[in-house]
């Protein structure tokens, strides 16, 4: 499932059937539509639920589902209700969330999230890490907490401490390594909320490593525990940048500020001579950020050491090489943004 015209290649979602569907909605719901897209059979609606009591929200959602189910081209309906944070009594309270997302898989979100969290901790911030990739968790490996199990206290999860000053929660702390977790819809949302609403005692920031794309986890986050801001990761290739634009659009639609765009795997550092080259092109993400009016947070090179250290559970940001400095600079910018947006 993708929001924002994925599959059509036009990027702006025009002509994707959203307008036609809007006419089918009950009037009150139609007036509250923030976005409505039909992509590959999935109609995705974001509704402004400000001021509605829980029963009113449920009734509106039910009305929308009834109106759209069976409409031409609609196989599945997804509804996200956005509300004023102050009114959203269902939202867990706690640290401020910085979501790390991308449109495309494999661009290095998890690596970046782990290193950002470690760099923030090194800079003196109290930070926790949530691995929101329910199906494909990677933070236990990246932080070297594989094989450890999360516990619970008074009905809430207790994060697993790592050696890097960053406690974390990941589905990997509940299941055998490599065991597939074939959860869908509500179960995914439930799992995510438990990871977020845990004993993050004293943490001021929760870095949340999102799965790729714009699916259930993203919608649950935006609805139930809206991030203070989002960091978007992209590689320099055009296609990854196009997907990054979709991720940006998802956050923008939900009024989650985008802190900025990071270019990962920017330039290749030769492990033998240290020389840098640019197999995927250079500067694409910075130009894309400029085009989208977003801050550019910097570039992290493609360096075999980052992969090796990630696999070994010793995050690069905890070391003192040039790549650790790149992560420290990223953390400085994210930290400054948080300070400027209390
Ligand atoms: N800057 C980098 N230099 C070298 N290798 C990197 C870099 N960033 C990420 N990698 C490697 O690329 C692979 C994918 O990274 P990662 O798992 O962080 O991506 P992801 O975006 O979280 O993927 P997914 O979408 O599957 O969650 C990993 O093997 C990781 O070690
Ligand atoms: Mg990942």
From TrEMBL:
| Segments of skewed composition (Gly residues) | 1-20
What organism does this protein naturally occur in?
Novosphingobium soli
Functionally, this protein is described as follows: Binds and transfers iron-sulfur (Fe-S) clusters to target apoproteins. Can hydrolyze ATP.
Q: Binding residues for ATP, per the UniProt record?
A: 103-110
- What family name appears in the similarity comment? Belongs to the Mrp/NBP35 ATP-binding proteins family.
**Residue ranges of region Disordered?**
1-21
Protein name listed in UniProt: Iron-sulfur cluster carrier protein
**PANTHER family, from UniProt?**
IRON-SULFUR PROTEIN NUBPL
């Amino acid at each position: 499932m993708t929001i924002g015209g994925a599959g059509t290649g036009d990027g702006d979602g025009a002509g994707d059937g959203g307008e036609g569907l809007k006419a089918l909605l009950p009037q009150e719901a139609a007036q509250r539509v923030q976005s409505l897209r039909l992509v590959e059979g999935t109609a995705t609606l974001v509704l402004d639920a400000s001021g509605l009591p829980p029963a009113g929200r449920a009734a509106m959602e039910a009305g929308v589902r009834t109106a759209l189910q069976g409409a031409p081209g609609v196989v599945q309906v997804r509804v996200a209700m956005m509300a004023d944070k102050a009114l959203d009594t269902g939202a867990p309270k706690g640290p401020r969330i910085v979501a790390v997302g991308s449109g495309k898989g494999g661009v290095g979100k998890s690596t970046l999230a782990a290193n950002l969290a470690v760099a923030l901790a090194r800079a003196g911030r109290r930070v926790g890490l949530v691995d929101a990739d329910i199906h494909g968790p990677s933070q236990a490996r990246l932080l070297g907490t594989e094989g450890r199990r999360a516990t619970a206290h008074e009905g809430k999860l207790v994060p697993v401490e790592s050696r890097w000053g960053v406690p974390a929660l990941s589905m990997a702390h509940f299941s055998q390594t490599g065991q597939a977790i074939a959860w869908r819809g509500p179960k995914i949302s439930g799992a995510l909320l438990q990871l977020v609403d845990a004993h993050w005692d004293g943490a001021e920031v929760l870095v949340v490593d999102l799965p790729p794309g714009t699916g259930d986890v993203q919608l649950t986050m935006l609805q139930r525990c809206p991030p203070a801001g989002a960091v978007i990761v992209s590689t320099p290739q055009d296609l990854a940048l196009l997907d990054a634009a979709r991720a940006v659009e998802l956050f923008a639609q939900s009024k989650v500020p985008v802190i900025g765009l990071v270019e990962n795997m920017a330039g290749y550092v030769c492990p033998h001579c240290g020389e840098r080259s640019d197999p995927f092109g250079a500067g694409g993400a910075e130009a894309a950020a400029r085009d989208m009016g977003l801050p550019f947070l910097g570039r992290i090179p493609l360096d075999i050491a980052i992969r090796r250290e990630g696999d070994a559970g010793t995050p690069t940001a905890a070391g003192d090489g040039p790549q650790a400095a790149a992560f420290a600079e990223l953390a400085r910018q994210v930290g400054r943004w948080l300070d400027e947006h209390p």
